[in-house]
Amino acid sequence: MVDRQIWTSNLNLWFGKNQILHNINLEIYKNSITAIIGPSGCGKSTLLRCFNRMNDFISDMELTGKVYLNGKNIYAPKTDVYAVRASVGMVFQKPNPFPKSIYNNVAYGLQIQGKYSKSEIKDRVEESLKAAWLWDEVKDRLHHSAMSLSGGQQQRLCIARALANKPKVLLLDEPTSALDPQSTAKIEELCLALKNSVTILIVTHNVAQAGRISDYTAFLYLGELVEFEKTEQLFTVPKDKRTEAYLTGVFG
Amino acid sequence: MLETRIQELKQMLMSEAGLVEEMASLSVDGLYKTIPSLLENVLALEDQVNQTELEIDDKCITTIALYQPEAKDLRLILMIYRINNDLERLADQAVNISESTAHLMNNPVVYELPELEQMKDNALKMLKNSLDALIKEDVELSHQVCNEDNIVDNLNRQIYHHLLELIQINPILTKQYLHLLRIAKNLERIADLSTNIAENTIYLAIGKVIRHKSEDLSPESH
Amino acid sequence: MNFRRGKNTFWLSIMTLMLIITAGFLVVFIVRIITLGAPVLSWKFIVEPPREAMTEGGIFPALIGTFLLTALAMIIALPLGIFTAIWLTHYGKPSQLVNILHIIINTMAGIPSIIFGLFGMTIFVNLLDLNVSLLSGSLTLAILALPVIINNTEEAIRSVPADFSEASLALGATTRQTISKVVFPAALPNILTGAIISVGRVAGETAPIMFTAATFYSRSLPHSLQNEVMALPYHIYALMTEGTHPQAQVPIAYGTALVLLLLVLLIDALAIIIRSYMRKKRQW
After folding, report:
1. For site-directed labelling of C182, which of A183, B74, B84, B204 has its Cα 20 to 30 A away?
2. In whole angstroms, what is the distance from residue C82 CA to residue C80 CA?
3. Does residue B146 form part of some domain?
C-alpha cells in the first residue's frame, strides 16, 4: 500500500457565487507523478492551487473541506500559511524568474526565511541548480541576470528556485506549454528523475504528456473529479464514458 | 521511456521464442528417443509461454496508449504483438505433437515413414531460422524461410499418400498411422507459422508487406 | 481622384498651419523671455542677494528659498505618497474604501493651486499657528504634490508584472517581503522618474506659497523652519506687480523667469535621461 503524501477530503471551492470545485476527494501518492488532465477552464489550475493556498489571494474565494499535507489539514485555522507555501514548490506556465541574478533567484526562497547562513544558502543554491539540470550551464555566470537565459533554461531555473526549499511536493502548472519541443522533452525527463526525491503534481492540457511521464492520472471535468487511476489503466480502459470521450477527442 | 519499454518487449519475446523452440524439438525427439514425462514437461513449458503471451499482449497495448510510437517503433511493437500471437500457436502445435508422440513412443512404426524425419528437420530448421532472423532483423534469412515453405508442403503431401498406402497394407496399425498423419499436419502448421514470423520480420525491417503473395520471394528476382 | 488628392492637400495644409501656430507661440514665448531676461543674467546674478530695493543684485536668496521649499516638500510628500500607493495596491480593503480614496486623490490632482494656497493658509498658518514660514509652505506644497506622486507610484507598481509577485508568494514570502524585495525594487526606476518630475513642478508653483511661505524681501538667508523665504516664482510675481522701479525690475523679473525655466528644463531632462537609462537596463 503506497503512502499518500497529499490528499483532499470533500473539497469544494467557490469564486463568489460560482462553484468551481465539486466535492473533490483526491489522493496523491509519495514519490509519484500525478497528472491532472481535462478540458480548459474546468478547474485544474484552481485545484492545484488549493495545495499551496495560493487561491487565498482571490478576494471572493470560499472553500469547504480539508486539504492534507503530511497528515495536517493546511486549511485549519492558525495554520502557518507561509510555512505551507515554503514546503510546497510551484512552477508556473510562463517562466517567471525575478529580474535578479541567477544566484539570487534560487536563493530567494531561503533568504526570506532568514534562518540560513550565507554558506548554507550557497550550498543549497548549487544543490538545487544541479537537481534541476542547470548547474553546468550557469555555474560560471551565477551573478548574471536570470533574464539572459533562454526560455527552457528559465523554466529550469524556476524549478531550481522551487526546489531550494527542499519541498516535499512540487506543483507544476502546465510547465511546458510555453516552451519548444526540445525544452519540453528535457523538462519531462527532469520530472522523471525528480520524482524519486519529491512528489510531483502536474496540470497539463497535453494528454500525450500525461501518458509519457505520469504514474497516475486524474481527469477533471467541470470541477468534478471524474476518474483517478493508474495512467496505464486510464489510457487503455477508462472506467467513465466522459474520460473516454475526452481521451478520444470528442471534446476539449 | 519508450526505448526502455521496447527493449523489455524484445527480451520478453525472445525468451518466449526460446521456450517455444525447446517445446518443438522436445515434442518430436520423443518419436526417436525414449523421453520420460515428455508430455508433462511440454505442458509445463506451455504454461510459461501462455503467461508470457498475456504479459507481452498487455505491454504492447499500454506502450501504444502511453507513448504513441511512430515509424520503426510502431512497426516493431505491432510485429511483436503479432509474432507473440504466432508463438503461442506454435506452442499449441508442439503440445499437439507431444500428445501424439506420447502414444507412439518406442513404436517402430515411425521408421516406416522416413519422410517424417525429413519434414521434422525442415520444419524445425525453419522455426529456428525465423527466430534467428527476427533477432537480427535479417531480411535475407527471412526470405529464405518463406521459400522453404514449399518444401515442407510437398513433404506433407508425400506423407499423406504414403500413409494411405501403409493403411491399406496394414489396416490394424491405422490408429498409429493416423497419429503420424496428425504429427505431419502439426509440423506443416509449424512451418506456416514460421513463415508468418519471417514475413512479419521483413515488414519490421523494411516496411514491406509480403503476406499472401505466391510468387518467388527472393530479394532480387533474377 | 483629383478631388481626393485635393482634399488630402487641404487637410495637410490645415494641420501644418496648426503646427506652425503652436510652435510659433512656443518660439515667440521663449525668444521673448530670453531677449528680455538674458541681459541681466550673470554668475553674480545667481549668487548675490538683491540690493537697492530690488533694482540691482541677484536672486540668490530666492534660489535658496525655492531649493529649501522643494526639498522639504519632497521629504514630506515622497514617503507619504509612496506608502499610500503601496497600501492602495497591496493592502486596500474594502474595495469601496479604495475606490473612494482614488476619487479623492484624483479630485485633489485637479484642484487649482490657489485653493491649495488658501488651504495652507487656513490650516498651517492660522489653525496650527505655524505662521508664514518655510514649514507652512513646504507642507502646502507637499499636499499639492501628493496626488501626483501617489498616482505615479501606483502606476509604477502596477506595471511590475504580477508574475513576479506570484512567484514570490508561492515561495512562502509575506506580502511585505514581496513588496520590499521584488515589487518595489522593480518599480523604483519609474517611481524615481515621477518624483523628479514632481520636483520640477513643485519648484515652479506660486499660488501655494504666496500666503504660506513667501516674502518679497528677507534680509538674510533662512536659518530655521519658522523663517519666511524668498522664492523664484513669487519673486517674479512680486517684481511685476509690486515693484516700485519697473524699469530696472522688469528685466530682473524676466531674468528670474529664465533661471526658473532653465531649472525646470534641467530637472526634466535629468528625469528623461534617467528613464531612458533605466529602460535600457530593464530586463522584462
Report:
1. A183
2. 6
3. yes
Q: What is the pTM of this model?
A: 0.82
Closest residue by Cα to residue A146 from C167, C177, C193: C167
CB contacts of B1 in chain A (<8 Å) are 192, 212-213
Separation of alpha carbons C32 and C261, rounded Å: 13
Domain span holding position B129: 2-206
B66 and A232: CB-CB below 8 Å? Answer: yes
Under 8 Å between Cβ of C241 and C54 = no
Closest-CA residue in chain C for A146? C283
- C25's enclosing H/E stretch is helix C2-37
Q: Indicate the CATH number for domain C61-281.
A: 1.10.3720.10
pLDDT digits (tens, 9 = 90+) for A149-195: 999 999 999 999 999 999 999 999 999 999 999 999 999 999 999 99
Q: Which range (A178-192, A211-225, B137-151, C48-62) has the least confidence?
A: C48-62
Alpha-carbon distance A89 to nearest alpha carbon in chain C (angstroms) = 7
Per-residue model confidence as pLDDT tens digits over C173-200: 999 999 999 999 999 988 988 999 899 8
Q: What is the residue range of A66's domain?
A: 4-247
Q: Are C259 and C46 in contact (CB under 8 A)?
A: yes
Coil, strand or helix at C261: helix
State the Cα–Cα distance between residues C98 and C92, nearest whole angstrom.
6
**3-class DSSP state of B107:** coil
Note whether C touches A: 3 CB pairs or more under 8 A.
yes
Please indicate whether, in this complex, the C-beta atoms of C171 and A52 are within 8 angstroms of each other.
Answer: no
Judge: A112–C171 Cβ closer than 8 Å, yes or no: yes
Chain A residues in contact with C170 by the CB 8 A cut-off are 52, 54, 85, 89-90, 92, 162
Which residue in B116, B87, B70, B69 sits closest to B13, CA to CA? B87
